[in-house]
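Tutorial sheet, problem 5. The two components below are modelled jointly, 987 residues in total.
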Amino acid sequence: MKRELNPTFYALSITLLIGTIIIHSVEAFDDKLLDQSNQICAVDLRRLMTSLAGKKEKSARFTEEKFLKNLEKPLRSEGTLHFQAPDYLEKITAKPEKERLVVKSKLVTIFDQQDVSQTLSLDQYPPLKALLNSIRFVLSGNLNALTKNYELDLKGNCNQWNLILVPISVPALEIIDRIVILGENDNVAKITWVESNGDFTIMTIEKENS
Amino acid sequence: MKPRTKIIFWIGILFIALLITIFRVRVETDIGLFLPRSSSPQEQFMINQFRQGPGSKLLVISLQGADSKTLARLSNSLTQKLKNDSTFIKFLNSEDSITLQTEKFIFSKRYLLSPTLNSERFSPQSLHDALSETLGRITLSRGFLEKRYLDRDPSGEFMSILRSWTETPLLNKKHGIWFSADGKHAFLVAEIFAEGFNLNQFENAIHIIDDSFKELNQNNSVSMHIVGPPAFAVASRESIRRDATKLSIIATCLVIGIIYLFYRSITLIFLCLIPLLCGVLISVSAIVLIFGSIHGITLAFGIVIIGVATDYPLHLFSHIKVNEHPSEAMDRVWPTLRLGVLTTSLGFVSMLFSDFDGLIQLATFTVCGLVTAALVTHHILPQITGFTFLKYLPVRVDALPFELLMKSKIFFYIFMAGVITFLGVQRSELWENDIARLSPIPDAQLALDRQMREELNLPNVSYWVIVKGKSEQSALRWTESVAERFQALKNQGAISEFDAVTKYLPSFEKQAQRINSLPSIEQLKENLRIARKGLPFRENAFEGFIQEVSSAKKSDLLTSERLKGTLLEARINKLFYHQKNLWFSMISFKGSVDKKLVARAISNFPSENVFVLEPRKTSNILISRYRDRALLFFGWGCLIIVLTLRIALRQWVAVGRVLIPILGSVLTVIAVLITAQIPLSLFHLVSLLLVVGLGIDYALFLNYKLIFKEERSKTHHALIVCNLSTVTVFGTLAFSTTPVLRAIGTTVAIGAFLCLLFSFIFASKPKMIDNPSIEKY
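Model answer (structure tokens):
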């Protein structure tokens, strides 16, 4: 019994075959590349945190841009950040208006232009707590606290890494979708937080001046 | 009835009383039950406020003795531990912030609640200003809360509600928690969950704080002080209890000594207590049956007043002769004893018609107690005493100069003339009108409480403005117009801060006014289009806002009923009460208040609807009224006593012999107290009731039936033992550090002693002819 093969069928199977080969070869190539880079400089959470923990005090200039879905352009501000291990964080905004935010253990104090302050307990504002703690834990290299409070995903290599933090706390998740921290070696270069309504903020940190 | 049957009968009754007492007794400590039934709405409100008002259940806790870091850590862990404890409504060491949950609710009702909402608010210009200001804040960190609401509430009504609700922050804070100005004391505030002014619940709450503190303060580096009305109430009860226990042990030992000295028998000492104990037992169970529970004050005052019953067995014992069965002696003593009990009890009967539950309970307690004690003395005591106990003859007291006393009436009259003149020229206030001064709490503690309240900026608990309305809405409307005036005073600086319920629950009119000030949807769209110019908002940025405004126009108005179960309920309950057909709204003040200007501001309103309430003043008025009522019934009681005695003794001269010594001693006691600059209080009055009861017995024994010479020396013996033990017991109390116990102790000791002394002076001459039926010994 002679069977005639359909030309369309031929064309399709060949395309599929070639496609598969190409995809696999690319993947293999990719893996090879990654393997190679890992051998040179693997990024590993534990090692990253240890190297971050090495710096007890950090100061840097920052620019912050808030992208709100209802606004045509972002809201910009700039100033300096100070961190002192284990949990002291200070954000001094110089433009467009002076403001100082101090985080110490469980409390946030915000001083306005006239130096009038307002203190809040982080426990009462879970989203704010999730955000500020993620920065503090990363800067202090506190792996334990990070794994306890966030789902972590680390990507990249030691020269350029990318840590995604998703808070475990449900009330925090209502507002904060994820926090992405971008770093180079043992420096934090950029902190982005995405809110559940789609708004997001990018804080770019200049290389340390000290 | 055979003696044996009698005893069994009595034991049965006492057993039932015991069962009732054990299983049914509930000692009430809520002061409200001891206040008049027929009081004005203001007074009833005051009582309610006193029982349930937030101030009466507030504890202020101070930690000190270590560096501020340690104090802050301890304060935080204590708060952490207790803030969710159901014993407390709140437990704070810093301001009570509004949580996310509350936020959502308030946000949804913002167009009903916002104080800044008016018809101008949504005009293009004002919207433009609000939008650019909000953007400015959002750019910075402090706008983090607002950012989320930008598209739905661009004019910031929600934030303006929060701002108007946030209490002025305390000036002194360290490490984010309350501290004193000098940084040496960390402060915490706890509000106890309790129904009424319930001392047991307060005590429990204080224990919980104490225990948690001890657990957290393992190395004892920090010390803690707790002040506030509940702490003071518990401490004063505790100090009275401690004092009373200590002193009663001393007094008991002394009395045992006296009784042993006079009767040479230990068993007698216990027999003496039987009538009193039975009296207390029957009284307690009777009151529990009638009223459902007994008030602590009734119990305490009642036991004091029926203390006279300890004398009954002593009269019996002193009159027993050699080889005589006690029941024979009882037969001789009984008519006099019976008249004494009857007179005293009838004196209290008038109180049963009082409109104070407290007085009715007290009268019931006294009458039941005295009658029971007398009946037990009559029926049971002789049987159980029997022949065996009296092995020795009682010590004789014949050596005392009774005859001489009887001839010294003239000195008594001179003395009394002096006392009456002294009382007549007295111009100083006879009564203590400030009951707070009877408190056993040291002044240092009270000063600490004041200081802590001031530093913590707590609402002033001694000064309120009350607004009364016939319906919820009318009360709210009145409150709104009063609050408007106060806002003007606040802007002038005459008031630092005030809080009114209408902040959280505006009247229908106000709510409707706010809703009506919202523009039509077309108008709003147009206004937003203009307002948006020059700002980075997208064209469709405010769709959510427009939708919210259109649904707000249809929203239900808030009532206290609809707010039940929401987080606003607690705030409203503190400032808004419903009683029968009346609604009361309380306006509270913080910091300084110019009372004159407040009085002037409210003078335009009918005084019946808007009035100032100063709880301390009002409660003093209430106590004075209680006292005046007691005095009035005391007066009626005296009249009944006089009539009873006139009927029993048949002659006015004899009535005089009984009553003049009592009157003399009461007047002298008052004169002594005035000389010692002790103003009279309710407690003195109750003590005087006991003095009268004692005096009646003393005088009757010297003037009624037992008037033969033989009997007289036994009567002298009995009276001296009675008096000595009474003076000893109450004399011991006079050394107490608690003002209340001191008042009772001094009054009774002096009064009882004088009663006996004066009764001896007025005793009728004993008949020389011996009663032939009585053998000589």
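Marking note: Residues 772-777 of chain B have pLDDT under 50 and may be disordered. Full credit if you identified this.
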